[in-house]
Amino acid sequence: MISQWQLRAAFAARLSDMYGREVPAYTTLVDVSREVNEDVLRARGADAERLGSIGRVTAERHGAIRVGTPQEMQQVARVFGALGMHPVGFYDLREAAASAVPVVSTAFRPIDGEELARNPFRVFTSMLTPADPRFFDDELRARLETFLSERELFSPELLTLADRAEAEGGLPEAEAERFLQLAVPTFELSTEPVDKAWYETLERVSAVAADIGGVRSTHINHLTPRVLDIDELYRRMTERGIEMIDTIQGPPAWKGPDVLLRQTSFRALAEPRALRLPDGTVTSGTLRVRFGEVEARGIALTREGRALYDRLLTTVDRAAAAQPHTPRSELARAAWTEHLPHTENELAAQGLAYFTYHLAHLARERLRAGNRPPTSITELVEQGWVHAQPIVYEDFLPRSAAGIFQSNLTGEGAKNSDRTGTAYDAEWLSGAIGRDVLDPFALYEQQQNHSLALVARELGLDGAFK
Ligand code: OOG
Ligand code: NI
What we know:
Elements: E1 2-3, H1 4-22, H2 24-44, H3 54-59, E2 61-67, H4 70-82, E3 86-92, H5 93-96, E4 103-109, H6 113-118, E5 122-128, H7 138-149, H8 156-168, E6 170-171, H9 173-183, E7 194-195, H10 196-205, H11 207-213, E8 222-225, H12 230-239, E9 261-276, E10 282-297, H13 303-322, H14 328-339, H15 344-349, E11 355-359, H16 361-368, H17 377-382, E12 386-390, H18 398-407, H19 426-433, H20 440-459
Helix pairs in contact: 1-2, 2-12, 4-8, 8-9, 10-11, 13-14
The chain binds 2-oxoadipic acid and nickel (II) ion.
């Protein structure tokens, strides 16, 4: 029996091989990431592994795909369900992006600590919103929905195997191999000619709409390695002559703890594609849809911590508007230095970030000697009874995601903001795909609470910490 995590690891590895063959610059990105990670490990020792073992970090990838309908979303959820990946978080990129990005998204990922440690592969998955009148008029919507309803992204055999893997927690070896052989090519760039006129009709609304609804298949559009020093990675890629987007998205580089997620990318490459002209002839042209992205992960923030992050983004936006000649990264660093706690322990004490708590050796000795522990978690940490281990942020950031989409669009597209958008939320998406879209905060909190309960028991305290 091949278990779900083994299927997930094998799927991620084969996808990586496939993507490396298709997009050679991805291989460069992976090589440079590995070099940077090795250097950081040498320089910082055990501290470099504070947010994940080097084994996990080196294998870690996230992919991104885009689908057209709730039904396709429901099917892709079954394929990822086979790999032990669950929908977490709801991202409305229609709101987060300044240009036309008519999608709502979730991320499929493992949710428990052990599964994440085995292989944390995740896929940011976006779904087109043809019903949103800000982007599509009635006629275009109808054409788009008809086009999408006539395509099949996932074969019935793949879906049957996926359901079986999910129900049985894995597949026998032969079936596992068959599943992988069917699943991986599903995300390959299709060689089927693209209907040029139809593609361009959609492109006038949004390049994302064209990438999703202009073709008869889906494809992964980037596969992102994780790096321990993204500023260094950025420098080395630039040195190699790879043109990166002009910023690193997310929190700035600063002296305090790494939180949430920092990402950067290189622009989509012009790739040769077969195009079908209105008279039926096929020519070759190029389309830009696939790019390279890299990320550095930090500590997961609580709702309060996240609200502070969002407020700081607004502060930095204002400062950048007032001081257009100062680099944004500098303004961000100043705001962070002023408003964010400078140590992990302060983040924990102020309830801004998630940690798991573990009894220190010292605590056992003290208990044996008859010492009584303090009853607040902050004091327990301060007095060395308990260690706080940061929980890694496993999710995404809507504004960064919108930035990644935008930096790779060919044009702004068209969005009629006078119209009212169709409302979608996590609950709607849960109903559409027939699975609960989980709340990331609740997942981190559960992990934290579980560790607190264990520590309380070990210390002989009954339950609730202050
Ligand atoms: C997804 C962009 C978002 C991220 O890392 O924030 C994303 C897409 O381009 O389909 O992957
Ligand atoms: Ni990404």
